[in-house]
Every structure is written in structure tokens, then in C-alpha cells.
Amino acid sequence: xxxxxxxxxxxxxxxxxxxxxxxxxxxxxxxxxxxxxxxxxxxxxxxxxxxxxxxxxxxxxxxxxxxxxxxxxxxxxxxxxxxxxxxxxxxxxxxxxxxxxxxxxxxxxxxxxxxxxxxxxxxxxxxxxxxxxxxxxxxxxxxxxxxxxxxxxxxxxxxxxxxxxxxxxxxxxxxxxxxxxxxxxxxxxxxxxxxxxxxxxxxxxxxxxxxxxxxxxxxxxxxxxxxxxxxxxxxxxxxxxxxxxxxxxxxxxxxxxxxxxxxxxxxxxxxxxxxxxxxxxxxxxxxxxxxxxxxxxxxxxxxxxxxxxxxxxxxxxxxxxxxxxxxxxxxxxxxxxxxxxxxxxxxxxxxxxxxxxxxxxxxxxxxxxxxxxxxxxxxxxxxxxxxxxxxxxxxxxxxxxxxxx
Length: 405
What we know:
five-stranded mixed β-barrel; mainly beta
């Protein structure tokens, strides 16, 4: 190194912490200094800065908000149970905002859970988009400029036998947050701008997008291939139904904002829980009816819903609590953020925990049934609705002419 002094011009204040005989002091300097110059004595720095030294007793009385937080939750429950772990949590007392497009997410492929569904992954999604919500908080926000926000993100480690030096072992790791707020978009569709089948070939799965129901409708979509987790979902939508000799019915479920017939309904919640799921199944779904079949016999019907998850292209997370993604070698019940209870048990492998999300105001294509098949809707389990077009489109989160979304 040469002997030339390196000169630094400060455009703002420079904060220097000076330690002297175990008594910390802080000096606030401004202006110009040269590295290599001898600093003034400790007492001179304090005097020049206008600061006064604090004693150890005075320092011990100062409190503040920490950026980094940590915690330990002791085990509860029977030995060997999903709560019999010591949990170590390390987090940030911040809001983490991000806007991201991810071409492919695959977690936990092969391995232990092949006994449930061989040759696939615990979580497998195409074209994931993390973005913010619109002003109405019921759909995706502005592309690129809106943010998916995690409040107080943290990492949590589940340790079995924490009190034993020889048997202590990590059983699971979770990345989570107190709340998550934003729009989780996924997949892409092969529909025309008006929502009709385009006749295109699905590049991810094969098949031709050429119908509004069945295999031809499924080929119009890619997105969620497999999902492992505990997902608490609020659902609502409209399913127009035509029955031979009875005409068309306005049919809906849940509490809708785009169909006045169900505007005052009770909200419909469905828990989706399991490992390597690829379908949403709702038995005995209650449908509100108006006109057609309703005019003849009843104002309520039932349906059996079996829908491939590829038809779903987005979720609203409106300050959703207890958001988390974890992987564990055995079943683990991670504690809630406030430590007053436990989240649903996470199965072995990768697991997504989202207790509250919304898929609202779906608009399915018209469904036609014969008279006797239509009459089956009047009592459980109801008419079959399998892989019908739901009218949900993949959100746009691209900048300019950038593509995949």
C-alpha cells in the first residue's frame, strides 16, 4: 500500500462509535476527514460533537424497537407428538415487499411422499406471480408497481429432544410471516380474449384447448400441478344451469359481488388440506337458484364439484395471518405467531400454510343437463360439475413487452 492518504468527503453526517476502556461513546461528525489521520482523544470528540457520555446505569434504562427479534417456544403435548418440539424463531420486525415472476416452482420431488403420488412433487407450479392487490382488494393490482407484502417475516426451526446433547436434531424448518397481503397469481391460459377456447396446444401438458368442459377445457390451463398444504379458502361464483324442459337458472354459491342473487348469502369457506393434491373436491355444494328449475321445484340445488387446480389462476390474500412455507421430516404443528396455539399439522415433506385466502366471483360457463340428471340437483350429493371452465384468467404482471404472463 502506498503512503498517499485516501480522502473521503462526507455529504451527510458520519456516525462513529468509539470504544474507550469499556465505556462506549458515540460521536457525530460532519464534513471532511482523511483516513490515516489521528483521531482526537475520546473526551475531545464528545466535547466537539456536543454529546454527553452516558453511564452504564443510564444506558440500561434505554429501550427501543429491535430490528431483529428472536424467540423460543418450549414443547407441549405428549412425547413424540406434533407439538413435542422446541421451536426457535428468528425474525425481522419489518414489512418485506416484493414483486416477482417465477417461471417454475418445484419442491419435494420424489422421495418419501412417492408412496402417496409417485413421480411428482409436493409443490409444483408454473408461472407464479407475486404482486399487490387492486383498490377494491379483490383482485390483482397494477403490474410491476404493486407489491406482495410479508409483515414480520421469520425463520422457525423445530428441534426434537432439545435438552439432549446426543439426541438433539432438527425436524423441520419454516419460513413464514405474521401476515401476508397481496395477490398470488399462477399459471397461464390458452383462451381467446373473450374467454372462448383458442384451439391452441397446451405447451406445458399437451392437449388442445377446444372446449368449456372436460379434457378440452383442462387443456386451456396450466398452473398448479401439485399442492401440499393447509389452505383455508373463501369461495363464491356463478354457474348458469340449463335443464331440458325447465329452461335456464341463475345459479350461484357463496357471497358474490357480481351476482345480486347471492349478494347477501353467508360466506362459503372450504378447507383444502393434503399432500400432493391436484384437485379441488367439494361434495354437496349448495347452489342458490332463480328461474328455470327453481321456478318448477325449488330455489336451492346441490352440486358435486371436482375441479383440477389448473383452472385456478389466482388467490387474494387480504392480510392473511399465519402464512408459511415449511419442510419437515415428520408431522410438525408449528406454533401460531402470537404463541397462543398451533397451526394445522404440517405433513412430512414441503407444506404451504395459508389459513385465509379468497377465490371470489368466479363465472363458469353455461352447464346443460337432461331432465332426470337435472332433477338430481334437488338433493345431495347433487349434479356433477367436473373440470368446468371457471372464467378465471391468469393475471398480467409483465413490464412493457416482457412475456410469459
